[in-house]
Write a structure and sequence with these properties.
Elements (H helix, E strand, L loop, with lengths): L26 E5 L6 E5 L18 E3 L3 E5 L5 E9 L4 E7 L9 E6 L2 E7 L9 E6 L4 H8 L16 H4 L7 E4 L11 H14 L2
Length: 205
Amino acid sequence: MELSDFDYHLPDSFIASHPIKDRVSAKLFAIEKNNGQKRHLIFKDIIELFCSGDVLVLNNTKVIPARLFGNRKTHGKVEVFLLKQKKDNEWEALLRPSGRVRAGEVLDFKHEDCSLSVCVVDAPRPDSGNRLIRFDDPSWMEKIETIGHVPLPPYIRRKDSKEDREDYQTVFAVHPGAIASPTAGLHFNHELLEALKRKVLKLFM
């Protein structure tokens, strides 16, 4: 089996560039495990699908604005996409461009009156844009909330907006650190979660 076996043509007109405002009204496709019956539902109908013994796991990680657009000291443009936190102030990141940026080089990012610098720790890696970067400013997390951009899904071909900071966040997000939205959880709202709790209580009564 090849990964290409799962390729299919999806016209751009079928891709929503903005999420639906009423989260629970998104479409939901369900397949019955026992008989293979296919059902077209909306997301709030998911409450009907839960049975005794089922487990719902919620990822309460909060998405951070992990894309940073800035400049090198040479005034060349640079993009840093945070991938994985290694230490308190160090991250594995994707640099574009990467091969031209030397180890020890400082990159500058700014938005209005907020500015931030990062140091590229390691040398370019063969066949990879990944690099280790270090924030020397102790308030770096607060500053990327101003300077950073929301990492939209790759099939969304537009620039991020102010509304995306809420639209691509789950209602139960608490702990900052995610670099991509846990999209499976985006369709829950507080009312649906409360309804699920009530159903669980009934199942155990």
